[in-house]
Automatic annotation (TrEMBL):
Top enzyme class: oxidoreductase
Residue ranges annotated for the Aldehyde dehydrogenase domain, each copy included: 48-504
Stored SUPFAM superfamilies: ALDH-like
Record: active site: E277
Biological source species: Promicromonospora vindobonensis
Keywords assigned by UniProt, alphabetized: Oxidoreductase
Cross-referenced InterPro entries: Ald_DH/histidinol_DH, Ald_DH_C, Ald_DH_CS_GLU, Ald_DH_N, Aldehyde_DH_dom
Pfam families hit by this protein: Aldedh (PF00171)
One Gene Ontology molecular-function label: succinate-semialdehyde dehydrogenase (NADP+) activity
Keyword Repeat: no
Sequence similarity: Belongs to the aldehyde dehydrogenase family.
Protein name: Succinic semialdehyde dehydrogenase
Length: 544
């Protein structure tokens, strides 16, 4: 997947070694010719310009690829509609076979996928592996549970025995997915796999920075036996996403709340479904009975995995006063010991921010907090010595309520500390945000933690874990409250959003003349008396 120089550098853990030291910005990390088969998968007429993506580890170019036009998007959806009709006629079991094979491919070819994910995002190898594990898990889940999720069900008819009711799930048609750069493999496929299983086609528009990973996903689906036209990739910026919304039957968007509102508004105008996972300002409560030594490693991961560029990453620590001194001291010590690096192996614990824009945002949030009186307990500096977009894992204390970092999503390796003296205050602090995506509670008393969890206004709550067990529980729904989104992914929730329900009612009594029409033909109040008797009987029998 990478050229010889990159392979040598990867083996040594020094990605910077792939660069020509005399012309570091002119040397491609990935051999353009090697990338050609992937780039050829982009649905484009090659008349709308090109995009060059860069490697966050070094600032060197990765690949240049053609972008799609609005006309390319429209043509892509037309092809998808043609392919979808045949695909929907296959049995769920046949469609599930593709997902089973994909899960094996992702595990077997994980090395090349990990290289691509790291080189496009700058994340550590461990954070990249979370994507491999997630797709293998999601693919297996839907392949196994798909028939149950999509099976028709019977419902009680208006008149028992005389009315037969069946409720079916039908595919919506073509699903459009707009995915961000932070988890390019997961977010390329987490909506696509249940959509495909349900009999839909998918057109994906990934972020320009992580288009190669999306194309790798398309190649893997092809190798798993997915028929042509059912999963296509269009490339480009916001204008390509806008064009996609104009043609598909359902849009799945993951990104900022500001953009999500626009996506929802346009979907509403077109009367198509929308699944939105948006921003968050996730909080984690450390109770007074916590085992500090056991909790610190998991809480560090909850805050700094993928350099904090994770939708469910913790950005606010709410710590009980009784344990604050011990916890903060040990937490800060652990944060300071985290290893940063650009290695294509497991030697680094924290990778790079993905872009200059993310670095600017993180820097601005920290600088604003410091200007308002906050204290830095760890980090707070741009680590340009490691790479152009590296930022030290940062812990801020005494952050005033007016600071931007207390309200806006930072999406970087920055966490703030707030002290409270009871569960009631902890819940109030955690809920004091427009967002409601994810939260966590750490306590020895699981019953207490569960009671606290019921009062937190987030779509998911982890107990004695940061996010991994929650995200990995793919049979359960995952989605945001308040300004954090609409709808949900995982489990039956994805199938619900990506299918239409159709109710088919059969008047069974028509064969022997027992119909409502024949009842009404009796005239007078007889029909009303008969129906009253039937309704009263159903009430007494608690039939519903």
């Amino acid at each position: 997947m990478i050229d010889d120089a990159a392979a040598d550098a990867a083996a040594s853990g020094a990605v910077g070694g792939v660069l020509d030291p005399e012309h570091p910005q002119g040397t491609f990390v990935l051999e353009p010719g090697v990338m050609a088969p992937l780039v050829a998968r982009i649905a484009t007429s090659e008349g709308s310009g090109t995009h060059r993506s860069m490697c966050p580890f070094t600032g060197a170019p990765l690949v240049t690829f053609p972008v799609s036009s609005a006309e390319d998007v429209a043509a892509c959806v037309v092809r998808a509609r043609v392919a979808q009709r045949s695909w929907a006629r296959l049995s769920v079991r046949e469609r599930a076979g593709v997902l089973q094979r994909l899960g094996r491919i992702v595990l077997d070819r994980q090395s090349e996928a990990l290289d691509l994910v790291q080189l496009e995002t700058g994340k550590s190898r461990r954070a990249a592996f979370e994507e491999i594990a997630d797709i293998a898990q999601v693919a297996r889940h839907y392949a196994v549970r798909g028939e149950r999720y999509l099976s028709s069900r019977r419902a009680l008819g208006m008149v028992p025995l005389l009315a037969g009711v069946q409720v079916h799930r039908r595919p919506v048609g073509v699903v459009g997915a707009i995915s961000p750069w932070n988890y390019p493999l997961v977010l390329a496929l987490s909506e696509a796999l249940p959509a495909l299983l349900a009999g839909n086609a998918v057109v994906l528009k990934p972020d320009p920075q992580t288009t190669l990973t999306a194309l790798w996903a398309a190649e893997a689906l092809d190798d798993a036996g997915l028929p042509a036209g059912l999963f296509q990739v269009v490339a480009g910026g916001p204008e390509v996403g806008e064009a996609l919304i104009e043609h598909v039957d359902h849009i799945a968007f993951t990104g900022s709340t500001a953009t999500g509102r626009k996506v929802a508004a346009r979907a509403g105008e077109r009367l198509i479904g929308a699944t939105l996972e948006l921003g968050g300002k996730n909080a984690l409560y450390v109770t007074d009975d916590v085992d500090v030594d056991a909790a610190v490693p998991g809480i560090v991961r909850a805050c700094f995995s993928n350099a904090g560029q994770l939708c469910v990453s913790i950005e606010r620590l709410v710590v009980h006063e009784a344990v604050a001194e011990e916890f903060v001291a040990k937490f800060v010590r652990a944060v300071r010991s985290l290893r940063l690096g650009p290695a294509l192996d497991y030697s680094a614990e924290v990778g790079s921010l993905t872009s200059a824009a993310q670095l600017d945002k993180v820097t601005a949030h920290v600088d604003d907090a410091l200007a308002r009186g906050a204290r830095v307990l760890a980090g707070g500096v741009h680590r340009a010595d490691v790479g152009p977009y590296f930022y030290a894992p940062t812990v801020l204390d005494d952050v005033p309520a007016q600071a931007v970092v207390t309200r806006e999503e930072t999406f970087g390796p920055v966490v703030t500390i707030t002290r409270v003296d009871c569960d009631e205050d902890a819940v109030a602090v955690m809920n004091d945000t427009e967002y409601g995506l994810h939260s966590a509670v750490w306590s020895r008393d699981v019953g207490r933690a569960r009671r606290v969890a019921t009062r937190i206004e987030t779509g998911s709550v982890a107990i004695n874990d940061g996010y991994t067990m929650t995200w990995g529980s793919v049979s359960a729904p995952l989605g945001g409250w308040k300004a954090s989104g609409l709808g949900g992914r995982h489990g039956a929730a994805s199938i619900d959003g990506l299918t239409r329900q159709q109710t088919v009612v059969t008047a069974r009594g028509a064969r022997f003349g027992a119909t409502l029409d024949s009842l009404y033909g009796l005239g007078g109040d007889t029909p009303s008396r008969v129906l009253t008797t039937a309704l009263e009987a159903m009430r007494k029998l608690r039939m519903a």
